[in-house]
Amino acid sequence: MSAWIYARLLVCFPADFRARFGASMVTTFAQGMSSRHGLARLQFLARAYVGAVTSGLAERAAAPRTSRSLTDRFVDSSHDVRIALRMMRRQPGLSAMSIVTLAVGIASTASVFSLLDAALFRPVALPDSGRLVAIRTTLAGNTGSSAHDDVRDWIAQSKSFDTVAAIRAQTANLTGLDTPATVRGGFVVGDFFAMAGVAPAIGRALGPVDYDPASPPAVVITDVIWRRHFQAAPDVLGRVMQLNNIPFSIVGVMPAGFSFPYDGIDAFMPVRFHTGTMSRSARSVAAFGRLKPGVSIAQAQSELAAIEAGLAATYPATNAGRGVIVTGLHEWLTSDMREQLTIIFALVIVLLVAACANVTSLQIGAAARRRSEIGVRVALGAGRARVARQLVTEHLVLAAVAGVLGVLGARLIVPVATRYAQVVPSFNIYGLDRVAVDARVLVFAAVITVLAGLASGVMPAWHWARQVPANSLRAAGRAIGERRLTRTRTLLVIGQVGMAAVLLTAGGLLVKSYVAILRVDPGFDAAGVWSLEYRLPANKYKSGEAQTAFHDAVAAKVATIPGVRHAAVARALPLSGNGDMIQVLSDRDATNATPRTAGFNTVSDGFFAALGIPLIAGRTFNATDHADAPFVTVISKSLADRLWPGESAIGRVLAAEGTPLRPRVIGVVGDVRHYRLADEPLPMIYARNVQNPGIFMTVIAKIDGDDDRIADEIKRAVWSLDSDQPVWKVRTLSSLVAGASGTTRFMFAALAIFAAAAVLLVAAGLYGVISQGVTERAREIGLRMALGAERRAVLQQVLGGGLKLTLIGLAIGLAGSLAVLRLMAGALYRTSPFDALPYVATAVVLGLIAALACYLPARRAADMDPARVLRDS
Prior knowledge:
Elements: H1 2-9, H2 15-34, H3 38-61, H4 70-90, H5 92-121, E1 132-139, E2 142-144, E3 146-147, H6 148-157, E4 161-175, E5 181-189, H7 192-196, E6 202-203, E7 218-221, H8 223-230, E8 240-243, E9 246-253, E10 267-270, E11 283-291, H9 297-314, H10 316-319, E12 322-328, H11 329-334, H12 338-368, H13 371-379, H14 384-423, H15 439-465, H16 469-475, H17 483-518, E13 529-535, H18 544-559, E14 564-570, E15 580-586, E16 596-603, H19 607-611, E17 615-618, E18 632-636, H20 637-643, E19 654-656, E20 664-669, E21 684-688, E22 696-703, H21 710-719, E23 728-732, H22 733-739, H23 742-776, H24 778-786, H25 791-820, H26 836-862, H27 866-872
Parallel strand pairs: 5-10, 7-9, 16-21, 18-20
Antiparallel strand pairs: 1-2, 1-11, 1-12, 3-11, 4-5, 4-8, 4-11, 6-9, 7-10, 8-9, 13-22, 13-23, 14-22, 15-16, 15-19, 17-20, 18-21
């Protein structure tokens, strides 16, 4: 990739030169890159890119054109670089400011690119991953998982796929160890490993024989599990792994580094060992496929849609109205984050452009002090191209140093940001585990370093190289700046303020959105609520009565822990990601009516009290709702309003799609935000655990205050009833509430850093321009003060000039923000891109920063000694 970029940079040379020397230059570059490593390779890369651009432009500008060897051109570039280094030593303060400014922009841009590259640009780490697709079923505009039986029909009838397979992820108990543990189990349908395109490194994959109910249980494990629990034993095949109280024989170990990008599976088992219902009505498996070569996603979509239409005709009770959507695997994995990451990258590019504008304005002013030098060089015969080449080289050298610092900064930023993102609950970015400042990021950093050097250096080079020699010599020593120079620097400062306004306004909108999410009423009281999860082995607790008895015993045991006010168990805790979705009809709906989507949860009697969910009508569960009693349910207010608007829901009957259950409503409770705070409350149906037993459960304990020791007490309560029962996800409900805004919080943190950097750039840019202006106008200011001008008038004039630039930049930036930030609408919650507060706050902040940045040089101008200034000038 770096050689490809270098070859494209050779376009700076004339066509005849490229024809003669282009191939050898690329070969020399490739040899130089292959013989260097680490920082030496980066330095060689920067020198080569700089040399290609500067030498190429000089070759084009040279008249007459001469044929020179490649060695001569590298010598010329080295000479220019030495002069540039000498100039940096001569003006260390200006050079340091320019380097730091560019380094901030390059470090920020490279850091964000590393995230973008890992998430969006790199393919899925599976063979020929461009042919992998995710298959989802649809109903009434909603997209969800697939049914096991439907997947079996797709496998049998489809012709567009090499393989279709599915997987159901579920935590599995790993026992037989000193301490019970868990692994993430994947219960597979079809030839899953052929679909993934990866075979086990040891042993074999699961095959048709393993799906036969008469065959012994077989499992394929990952390399991580092999090393963690079996110490990488070479004789692992045939060993027994006790999962969910079933002795599985290990038949294969996947290669190191293998990870199918779905739910972090550790152990792969045939779907027949899954404890849930595997029918056409239970839509709980994630389906994937590998397209045949030459088959498009649209063709596969059309074929599966036809198959699904046939299934709807054959099984109208479960498949009527359902469709299929086929999406590229990588697109499906990144669909939730693509917009947010693109916004962040666009805004960090704005920051980089602002940094380049800052350096340009500083360097234009600094070049003014070199009028005599430039004039002498031009008068002695240096062509304009030669002068421009030297000035551009100086900026490229500055950019190269900034690029090295920027890469080092990115190496510090990326691990910290990655660790922060990984610990933010409910924040999941695909590819986060492979974010690194690697060769691809280094090449990108090198490219933007060259572009930043050119962007900040072309304008000063163009300005000073076009000066007439006599004018340059005559301008030496004068204090009054040129009108054209002042106008150029003024426009650059206005641009900086405008770009900073965009970043600050974007940050302000995210702050308001984040605050809106924090103010959302989740419908429950999270304070003091602790929880943990467990799953009972179905072959140990075989009956619903045994399962319910264990769950109730756990709740009763937890209730005896000192400090616990309420204890309960539930199938799903709000914001935990757990929960089922069902389609329901009311007793007043016609048989052909469109069902409503609702969440379904199974809870014990103390659930609503533990979470502080208010009772609105009727009653909650009690001992009369036993296993042999009529099936009853408690529903949320939003579902009651949808099914029986304006009527009482108490005593009414629900019809759940795909089941014969017809529960009677005994109570209506408040709405909760079950999956995300930013979503509207999910209509909910609650069943009593005695009437709907199951093996998976969440223990809930409501305590007074904040006592971390309660976590161990809850664990011991479970283990006192079954010492082999693993538990996991011991956490507070408050942590889930905090994590529910994880994506917005991450974007806010990133933009806060960019906005702070932009404000500092604006302050530095304004200070530099106003300060240089005061230096250039020192004679004028001294003369005015000698003629009677008051210091207050001088202070107001200089300060007013800087604030005028700020106001113009603010007007342009805020107007541009109105157009640009509409793209952020999808990332905002209860916040419009047109809300006035962020724009007002941006104007105030930038105004105050600008006033401070302008005041210091204005004060210096007002404190000038007129006699000394006139004498020295």
